[in-house]
């Protein structure tokens, strides 16, 4: 039996999904892909794949998280750093236990009432 650590879920699925949302929102605001790529520290090809839903499309965020992602994009457009805003969203997902829902998707052996990563 192989366990999937919550940090692995964060790195493999959640962070790419946050980047996808950042890219889509910036694109809808009229930002060119080159600008988005530079702002997010990724390639233009990755931006294109995010926008076309070819990459990181399995994680779906709730409305509260989506609203906070929009706030983060607006802060980035005013010079906040992508790492700061990504960390902000990751912390929100931990605080609201949304990360647990995503963890259950990728590790079916977790107990339903799992609190393994809620260590103080």
Number of helices: 6
Overall tally of domains = 1
Cα-based radius of gyration, to the nearest Å: 15 Å
Distance between the amino and carboxyl termini = 26 Å
| Main sheet characteristics | none
Identify the overall geometry. globular
Given helix and strand content, the structural type is: mainly alpha
Spans where pLDDT lies below 50 across 5 or more residues: none
Could you tell me the mean pLDDT?
Answer: 91
Number of strands: 0
Protein described:
The chain has helices at 6-28, 33-40, 44-51, 63-77, 82-95, 98-106. The longest helix has 23 residues, at 6-28. It is built from 6 helices and no strands. Helix 1 packs across helix 4 (63-77) and helix 1 (6-28) packs across helix 6 (98-106). The chain is 64% helix and 0% strand. It has one domain (6-106). It is mostly helical.
List keywords for this structure.
mainly alpha, globular, 6 helices, 64% helix, 120 residues
Summary, kept brief:
This protein has 120 residues and is an all-alpha fold. The protein is 64% helix and 0% strand. It has one domain (6-106).
Layout of SSEs?
Layout (H helix, E strand, L loop, with lengths): L5 H23 L4 H8 L3 H8 L11 H15 L4 H14 L2 H9 L14
